[in-house]
User: Fold these one by one.
Assistant:
Number 1:
Amino acid sequence: MDRSKIVAVITGAIALLLGIAYLVMVQLLDFRGEMLPAPVDLSEVDGSQPALVQPASSSSPLSP
């Protein structure tokens, strides 16, 4: 076999290995389950606890 055929076989083998590795990685990531979205409001995590940050009132001593 001449050099160009050896390079072609090695390149094809590397391409197949990368493709199989990609498919395995996708399957492993998909196996983790459903992704949950990030919470929109972080001041109230589960809905039963009051918010830790109180809204600023207009009678604040810092307001002009």
Number 2:
Amino acid sequence: MSIENMFGKLDKIDIIAEKPDEKKVLMVLVCNGFIDGSPETQTALLDKIEYYLGYAQSEEFKEKYKDWQGILRLTFGCKPDELVLVLLSKCPAWVEDNGVELEIEIGGKQVHIVEN
């Protein structure tokens, strides 16, 4: 499966949902099919996450959402390769350093991955 089939365009946010009553902005990164652990796939996933974080730090985001909390939800239809899970275990601090909460969903259920 190609990178674009797995993650869509790397420089595009897949879904944004506003939760005005909670002052939260949910940004959803949709991962399609089985996500393998190849270096190319891992790099592409990190690039896409970085794009989302860049948007959350942008003037456009700050002007539109002011003091709202950003949430980045990674959604996987099925469990990704173990190497991807290890990679994701190292991401929460990076995401939080950018002022965004990280959520991971596999098969429609929210999961917590412990840092290795």
Number 3:
Amino acid sequence: MGVAGSILPGPASLFSWSPQVPAFLPGGRDPGVLDVGAAGTSERPGGSGSERSSALGGMVAAGGGAAGPSHLSSSLPGVAVRGVSASGPVSLSGTAVSGISSSGVGDQGSSAQGSSDRSYSLWIVGHSYIHWAAERAAIRPGGRHLGLSHRGLHVSWWGQRGMRWSQLLTLLERLRSRPRHPDLLLLHLGGNDVDACSGKDLVNLIRDDLRVVLDWFPGVLLMWSDIVPRPRCLASRRWTRGLSKLNRQVGKWVVSQGGLQLLHEWVDISCTGLFHTDGVHLSAVGWDLLLDDFSSGCERVLALC
């Protein structure tokens, strides 16, 4: 989906910024991880005082942002997913136990009408992108459950600012003790590791760890959210051709395991309106498009259940 390059993210005044313990586990326990994902920034990424610039017109509304309730995948321009065949139903071993949000904030967009008889648990895990996406979701009509609570979807957000791939298994090992395991596990992680090792080594590490995840959570459906390129990192080839190759290889592997790849085809590095001024995070428009991809992918899975 193309977004006009003249769109600016606007002043970051929607949320106040203050030092805080990363939202890693309930209870405010700090795992000792530095916030490398937002180094040197003093603004809330993607905040906009007006929420919707009039310059956006119907473009973002069509993408399912704050202008209305969640849309079906077929009506989301630029939203693309790979995996989960439509030839048969998806088996998700869920029971009717409500998911628990790590932030403790409810779904302000939920409705009792058309509620599903079955409950599905989705864990969304990742670095600062997930931390801020959760904040953005909380003020959208669909709320933190991505507008799919009427379909029985309950979302738990596990966003750690600065999280690296090596911390994934540590987090999930702790979460294994929870009374309910996820039916769907969406990962948006690895962006803070692109410069730390070769693309080949990172792909192998991701595959190895995801095999462990599949062993720990039998029957879970993996959702790989492509790493989003960062404007301030484009001088490195690892963030251009290398990143495209990494996303393609990891996504292909996840799909081969019965999972789903979220492609984020709306990403355009030349469009400053999609990104925060720090060159790492997204603008309000970018967060909305990312959340639309999350919702669209989940909707596709639930439609086959």
